[in-house]
Amino acid sequence: MVLLSPLPPGPTPGPEAAFEQIVAIAPAITEDLKPIKPATTFPTSTQRVYVLYTYRGMEKGVPYVIAWYRDGDEVGSDVLLWRWGSQGTNYAYLEVGDFGPGLYELRLYIGRQLQLTTTFTVGVPIRLTPTPESSEETGS
Prior knowledge:
- With 140 residues, this protein is mainly beta.
- The protein has a single domain (2-8, 19-122), classed as Immunoglobulins (Immunoglobulin-like).
- It contains no helices and 10 strands.
- The strands form 3 sheets. The protein has a 5-stranded mixed beta sheet with strand order 4-10-9-6-7, with no helix packed on it. Strands 1-5-8 form a 3-stranded antiparallel beta sheet, with no helix packed on it.
- The N and C termini lie far apart (49 Å).
- Mean pLDDT is 90; it is low at 134-138.
């Protein structure tokens, strides 16, 4: 699990550092970070999903973590050093075609502090439904 890994050295995030909100989830984005066909459910044929988010108070070199989950299991993660400006919009993406249908979750951290989470679905996730147990008692 990525959060057990040591963070790379970098400046301590200031009190204003935050990933503020999810802007959109989409299978494609433009060069100027506009979502194309945003949604929260995507067809099974979808190969990549982008999550756009806003940030503020960041400074270069601050460690941050991107962690992806499918049906509750971690499928990818990165521990990175911030290299963009102090505020604006950024994105993370996952090659969902590598993992197939399911309920996906993105967790974004600054250092080890959880900042944002969001979920989306690819295809129709398989959900196991418990079989109802018989209410009849068996005698012996």
